[in-house]
Amino acid sequence: MIRFDKVTKRFGGRTVLDSLDFSVHTGKHVTLIGPSGSGKTTILRLLMTLVKPDEGTITVGGERLWPAGEKEVREVRRNIGMVFQQFNLFPHMKVLRNVTEAPVHVLGLSRDEAEERGRELLDLVGLGAYTDSFPGRLSGGQQQRVAIARALAMRPKVLLLDEVTSALDPELVAGMLDLLRDIARSTDVTMVCVTHEMGFAKDVSDCVMMFDEGRVLEYGPPEKIFSAPEHERTKEFLSAVL
Ligand code: ADP
C-alpha cells in the first residue's frame, strides 16, 4: 500500500531522511518510534504531500505519489487521511457538519448519504449524542475523536496518525488507545502512526519501525522489538521511554 524507494529529504542542507526504503502492506498497522528529530513526522508529511522529497519515489496503492503530476498527486492523496496532534476542527460548524463537509464537497456524496455515514462514525467513536454540538463545547479527547471520525468519513485506504494522544489528558489516553485498537480491528485501513506511547505501539500495531537519524534502524512485530531489540540504540531508546 505504501512504498518509499530511496527517499531523501533535506531541510536547509541537513539530511533528515537518508535514502529511506520501506513498505507497508495493505491493512497493516505500523508504528514509527525513535528519538525526537529522527524523521518520523517528516514521513507522514511526505505522504500528505505537505513537503516534497529531494530524491526517491513514493507510491501509494501502486500509484505514484512522487514524482507525479499535480492531478495524479490529488487522486492518490485522496486515499490518505490524517489525524494531527492538534485536532483542527472547524469551530463554527457543528460536530456532524465537521464530519460531512469533505465527503460532500470532495467525494460528491449527497448530504443525506454523508450524514448517515457521519452518524455511524460518530457512534463508532462514542460521540453519537454530540452530533449537534459545536466543537468548542467538547473536551480535548472528544474533539480528537471527532477528528478521527472526520478522517474515516473520507474512506481513506491509509490513515496517518501523528501523536494523537500527546495533547490529551493522561486519563483519556487509555480510551483513545481502545478506540484506535477497535478501528484497527474493524476496518481494513492501513495505519501509520507516530507515537511516543509505547502501549499504543504494543497493542495496536503489527509492525514497529525504529528510526534513528533518518534511517530505519530495525523493524519487526512489537513482541520482538520490545523484548529482543537487536540494536544498542533501540535498547537505549526503549529503556528511556518505557
Ligand atoms: P520526529 O518526528 O522524529 O521528531 P521530524 O520528522 O519532525 O522528526 O524532524 C526531523 C528533523 O527535521 C528535525 O531536526 C526537524 O527540526 C527538521 N525539520 C522538520 N521539518 C522541518 C522544516 N519544515 N524546516 C526545517 N527543518 C525541519
UniProtKB/TrEMBL annotation:
What InterPro entries does its record include? AAA+_ATPase, ABC_ATPase_HisP-typ, ABC_transporter-like_ATP-bd, ABC_transporter-like_CS, MetN_ABC_transporter-like, P-loop_NTPase
One Gene Ontology term of the molecular function aspect: ATP binding
**Protein localization:** Cell membrane
Where in this chain does the entry annotate a coiled-coil region?
none
| Record carries keyword Transport | yes
Q: What is its main location?
A: membrane
Against SUPFAM superfamilies, the record matches this protein to: P-loop containing nucleoside triphosphate hydrolases
The organism sits in which domain of life?
A: Bacteria
| Keywords, ordered alphabetically | Amino-acid transport, ATP-binding, Cell membrane, Membrane, Nucleotide-binding, Transport
The answer to whether the entry has keyword ATP-binding is yes
Record membrane topology? Peripheral membrane protein
**Pfam assignment, any one:** ABC_tran
A Gene Ontology cellular-component term: plasma membrane
* Limits of the ABC transporter domain: 2-238
- Annotated family: Belongs to the ABC transporter superfamily.
The protein depicted here goes by the name Amino acid ABC transporter ATP-binding protein
- Source organism of the structure: Streptomyces tsukubensis (strain DSM 42081 / NBRC 108919 / NRRL 18488 / 9993)
The lineage, from the top, is: Bacteria, Bacillati, Actinomycetota, Actinomycetes, Kitasatosporales
